[in-house]
Design a protein that fits this description.
11% of the residues lie in helices and 20% in strands. The protein is α+β, with helices and mostly antiparallel strands and 95 residues long. It is built from two helices and eight strands. It has one domain.
Length: 95
Amino acid sequence: MEHYDDGTVQPLNSNRLVAEKRNFFRGWQCDIGCSINIAINGDVTLASCGQSGVIGNIGRPMDMGDLPRSITCAKDHCHCGTDICIPKRALVDAG
């Protein structure tokens, strides 16, 4: 679901968000721990954007215990429909 400051809530549609140019989340908190991506070579990352770096390979045992649950997004835009669907929150300035 998409939640907006004005109280609007609507079903998430990643294609619409891209078409409306609403896929820019730099500086937002992204729950990359909710998603894993397996590359064709078997490398595993959290999300497909690669911000977690390679955390292992499906051909070798992996310790999933110390992985980040969320990160602050450093990418210019969210390019993947699957990554767009990962829960995100705009960080609020406490000052």
